[in-house]
Specification:
Its EC number is 6.1.1.15. It is an enzyme of class 6 (ligase). The chain has 13 helices and 31 strands. The chain has 566 residues and is an alpha+beta fold. The structure holds ligand 9G3.
Length: 566
């Protein structure tokens, strides 16, 4: 492609509102442009990278008998009302009306549409299993779109859905999909981990996320430093054998702690440590107020709490509700002398505290010498806290370390979460009607492009991996007005294209410095420069990732390209 005939609007300066490297470079190198918050256009170079990401995904989906479809983004509200999600999804779900005031959703995902499609077609176990996928635009009115393509409001997803007559069949496809995802992210050249994850409100229990390891990642991964255990921190179990303390129990004493609110302040004021403090929080699970205790140096994991309580929703109770329940403000709450009937849950670590410090449910007062069981009762001890670095790995091998990650893939065993409410059924071999057993599997295609951009760049620009680069070779005659250079450039352009290399021929009448800076910014794997030694048949090759430059005879160009690209 002749650069003078394409559209690559590079920028010298870093756009002010671009706060991560991938976003800065995708804008500066002319791959994307922002239309409005969380909404982007893919320019020619960006579209070429997207297509290369999509073709790798398509190939691996087809390997596991995934069949491609394309479903509408405009989804009639009735489908979402069947599953109830029309009512329990808030402003994040884009809603529109048609000219007849009928309600529609802009597709945030397609579980409802695909199930409605199949329930009218797939009626027998003989037609199962079936795995369908699409690469399609999704809409989610994110509260805080940021980091460019990493968290947009309109984005491209590969979403697959599988339908089965048995759990075993789902398990088999789930493992196939996990392997396909591993192949995809490996072929994309990404540094990633598959981690145990939380299915949240999506239903089903088994779910894995695929995380690209990156400091700008919004998720935290807890992994073992000596096994392949890895989980989203939300899901990482804490299995520690706490040891009973030899310390002798002291008498419970009420002490004044004026203006001491945080665990840190109280611990310093009473010359103790957060590990000896009993942190008392009040949560609202569905509509019930629950007192939840943890050790002062630990954080309660609300996703674990939701599972232990088997609640639909779990959130911190608001201060007014707390005041009404315990006649006391947050900061002096404690588990002693609670109103009758208030359920008390505690993380396992609390059970091993001896002579702990806790709030007295009276502003500016705390207790010392507080001992669980003796001074207050706990209805249920459970694993309720976030794992911390240094904790033993839940699989018993090694110690836990944390890493930040960008979620690029998420796979779920949905079971009958959608087929039952939507009456998606088939006749089994005994002619009995059964709900489909389903799985769903997503890859954030536009997010993957940004994750690759985040991993493959240096101070001068991108260093695209060969399999994703918008073009293979950047052909740059230093001075198009020099007849020898221009002629050799045309000749080599034809030659390289005839060998099916994708070539970006910078035929612009720009200064060499501009051309070279743009070439480094765009980051194609190889730059072929035709300069003043063209008259000697000498050209210069620059390998972008290795950063090395060599001069070769133009007759050697092809073998050099074959050596590099094959
Ligand atoms: C919504 C909105 C946001 C959402 C969803 C629905 C996330 C929603 C989860 C999934 C699950 C899988 C198929 C492909 C892989 C992921 N955010 N999810 O369902 F209405 Cl506003 O999308 N779906």
């Amino acid at each position: 492609m002749k650069q003078s005939l394409t559209f690559i609007p590079t920028l010298r300066e870093v756009p002010a509102d671009a706060d991560v490297k991938s976003h800065q470079l995708l804008l500066r190198a002319g791959f994307i442009r922002q239309n409005t918050s969380g909404v982007y256009s893919f320019l020619p170079l960006g579209k070429k990278v997207l297509q290369k990401v999509e073709s790798i995904i398509r190939e691996e989906m087809e390997v596991i008998n995934g069949v491609e479809v394309f479903m509408p983004a405009l989804q009639q509200a009735e489908l979402w009302q069947e599953t109830g999600r029309w009512y329990n999804y808030g402003p994040e779900l884009f809603r529109v009306k048609d000219r007849h005031e009928r309600d529609f959703a802009l597709g945030a995902t397609h579980e409802e549409v695909i199930t409605s499609l199949l329930r009218d077609e797939i009626k027998s176990y003989k037609k199962l299993p079936l795995t369908l996928f699409q690469i399609q635009t999704k809409f989610r009115d994110e509260k805080r779109p940021r980091f460019g393509l990493l968290r947009g409001r309109e984005f491209i997803m590969k979403d697959a859905y599988s339908f089965h007559a048995s759990k075993e069949s789902l398990d088999a496809t789930y493992e196939d999909m996990k392997q396909a995802y591993t192949n995809i992210f490996t072929r994309l050249g990404l540094n990633f981990r598959s981690v145990i994850a939380d299915s949240g409100s999506i239903g089903g229990k088994d779910t894995h996320e695929f995380m690209v390891l990156s400091e700008i990642g919004e998720d935290t991964i807890a992994y073992s430093d000596s096994s392949n255990y890895a989980a989203n921190i939300e899901m990482a179990e804490v299995n520690i054998q706490y040891v009973d303390s030899e310390e002798k129990q002291e008498t419970l004493k009420k002490v004044e702690t004026p203006e001491q609110k945080t665990i840190q302040e109280v611990a310093e004021f009473l010359e103790t440590v957060p590990e000896k403090c009993i942190k008392t929080l009040v949560f609202k699970a569905d509509d019930e107020l629950i007192v939840v205790l943890s050790r002062g140096d630990h954080e309660i994991n609300d996703i674990k709490l939701k599972k232990v309580l088997d609640a639909q929703t779990v959130e911190m109770a608001d201060p007014l509700e707390v005041k009404e329940l315990l006649q006391c403000e947050i900061g002096s709450l404690g588990p002693i002398k609670l109103p009758i009937g208030v359920k008390v849950l505690a993380d396992h670590a609390v059970k091993y505290i001896v002579n702990g410090v806790c709030g007295a449910n009276e502003k500016g007062w705390h207790y010392t010498g507080a001992n669980p069981g003796r001074d207050f009762s706990v209805d249920e001890y459970a694993d309720l806290r976030f794992i911390v670095e240094g904790d033993p790995s839940p699989d018993g091998m090694g110690t836990v370390k944390f890493a930040k990650g960008i979620e690029v893939g998420h796979i779920f065993k949905l079971g009958t979460t959608y087929s039952i409410p939507m009456d998606g059924t088939f006749l089994d071999e005994n002619g009995k009607s059964q709900p489909y057993i389903m799985g769903c599997y997503g890859i954030g295609v536009s997010r993957v492009m940004a994750a690759v951009a985040e991993q493959y760049n240096d101070d001068y620009g991108f260093m695209w991996p060969n399999q994703l680069s918008p073009y293979d070779i950047h052909l740059i005659p230093v001075n198009m007005k020099d007849e020898t250079q221009a002629q050799m450039a045309e000749e080599l352009y034809k030659l390289l294209k005839s060998y099916r290399y994708e070539v970006l021929f910078d035929d612009r009448a720009e200064r060499a410095g501009v051309k070279f800076a743009d070439a480094d910014l765009i980051g194609l794997p190889i730059r072929v420069t035709i300069g003043k030694r063209a008259s000697e048949g000498i050209i210069e090759l620059k390998y972008r990732q290795a950063g090395e430059t060599v001069e070769v005879q133009k007759e050697e160009l092809l073998e050099k390209m074959q050596a590099f690209f094959n």
